Target: UPF0145 protein GRI89_16660
Amino acid sequence: MIVTTTNAIEGHPVRDYYGIVTGEVIVGANMVRDLFASITDLIGGRSGQYEEVLGRARHQAIDEMCAHARALGGNAVIGCDIDYEVVGRNGSMLMVSVSGTAVLV
Model:
């Protein structure tokens, strides 16, 4: 399935539009990860633990959106937007949401 942030796919004209599709994933940040992230923040550098969780959540959300597009008869999603939001009590969870338009190309 083609997923793009653009509103068209060069060389692939849109034959049909099926509507907005979404995917959402909420992940919790546990205390061990928070501790390692705090240490990384103190000494500098990147937090590999958070990056790994964030990447996995993003891929799961995109997969969910693509599954919705397929269920509608689409073979591509255009205009894809990815958003990240901290949710839950004391910002203890991270939500990754993606949306786009399911199309047939």
Observations:
- The mean pLDDT is 85.
- The chain has one domain: 2-104.
